[in-house]
Amino acid sequence: MRWSIEGTAYPVIRIDLEEGEKVYAETGAMMMMKGNLKVDTIMIDLQQERSKVKAVLEAIGRKLLSGETIFHNVFEGPGTVWISPSLPGGIKYIESRGDCWIVQDYSYVAHYGDLDLDLAWKGPKGLVLGDLVWLKLCGEGGFWVSSYGDVIEVNVEDEMIIDNMHFVALPDNAQWEVVKFGNLRNFLLGGEGYVVKVRGPTKVYVQTRILPPLAAAIARFMPSKWSELLRLRL
């Protein structure tokens, strides 16, 4: 299997598959393809060694709690497929060598190999951050993540403070905790709120932009219910 990132500001993943090679992607992520690819839509949980009832419940749990799709499209070679992320930004490939990775739920794009997809519970930390789970990938293979903005790999030697909205992925064995940002003035007026403190040595992937400010900026130009009613009356 060969792959490459094509494009600049809004790139896509090109994956060249040999006979029998497979790649799994979110439904709707295929931009184009060529060759003699076989395409199927599956529930990944049912492909793993677990009971059907447990597999279905875990898939529904991922959908309800993290927004992750229940079904995935699997592309089997020979042929070429171009995968387009849902987020307008960068793409990063991460290799998994029998270990586990924690991934922001909306950042997952596609994967290959013998990887299990599961939920990573945040516990009380999730209540602070506003959501309860991340996505967890374990096993041998590789996966691609996307972000709003670019994706940067950061090597943490000792300790680093990361805004929780900028987090994309980190190893499951990394040490981290949620803390308030600075003093009370910073916390209330500084626009940061809670941050994630990561202790090294480890690596973490972060995104250079976050969606809430963009959504707020767009909302300013969206007509409100009251302005729409006034326009209709006029």
Model description:
The chain is an alpha+beta fold and 234 residues long. It has one domain: Mitochondrial biogenesis AIM24 (Double-stranded beta-helix). The protein has helices at 44-47, 52-66, 124-129, 184-189, 211-219, 225-233; strands spanning 2-6, 12-17, 22-26, 30-35, 38-42, 72-76, 79-83, 91-103, 108-121, 133-146, 151-156, 159-163, 167-171, 175-180, 194-199, 202-207. The strands form 3 sheets. The chain has a 9-stranded antiparallel sheet with strand order 5-6-3-9-10-8-13-16-11. A 4-stranded antiparallel sheet has the order 1-2-7-4, with no helix packed on it. Strands 12-15-14 form a 3-stranded antiparallel sheet. A hairpin with a 5-residue loop joins strand 1 and strand 2. The chain starts with a strand and ends with a helix. The relative contact order is 0.15.
- The side-by-side strand order for the widest beta sheet comes to 5-6-3-9-10-8-13-16-11
Low-confidence runs of at least 5 consecutive residues: 186-191
Q: In whole angstroms, how far apart are the ends? A: 62 Å
- Can you write the helix and strand succession as a string? EEEEEHHEEEEHEEEEEHEEHH
CATH class: Alpha Beta
The portion of residues assigned to helices is 10-25%
Overall average residue pLDDT: 80
Helix run count: 6
Count of the domains: 1
Please report which band the strand proportion falls in: under 5%, 5-15%, 15-25%, 25-35%, 35-45% or over 45%. Answer: over 45%
What's the architecture, going by CATH? 4-Layer Sandwich
Whole-angstrom Rg: 20 Å
Task: Please state the structural category.
Answer: alpha+beta
State the CATH topology. Double-stranded beta-helix
CATH homologous superfamily title: Mitochondrial biogenesis AIM24
The main β sheet shows up as:
9 strands, antiparallel
